[in-house]
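quick one before i forget lol
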Amino acid sequence: MISRLDYKVPGGKLLRVEVEVESGVVLRALVRGDFFAHPEECFEAAEGELAGLPVDRLAEAALSLFSRPPLSIFGASAADIALALGRTAHETQAH
């Protein structure tokens, strides 16, 4: 199942997240939106490490992964991303 969510962070920035889940496991998680990440390859690596996690651990793992140095996120925070992914994961579990 694929779930999508648009989340407006405090300050007006938009996050668009998409989570694909099968049998309670994250197959893919994408985070896009009105923010910048530097270095981009660290953001992409963090995003990639979400695959294979149990869906109920997605928000917790996202907070940790998107907070790791040397990754810097401008226009959103790791907590914003974790919240959006957590809400999206909740939708997948509700269906």
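fyi The beta strands are 2-8, 14-22, 25-33, 36-38, 72-74.
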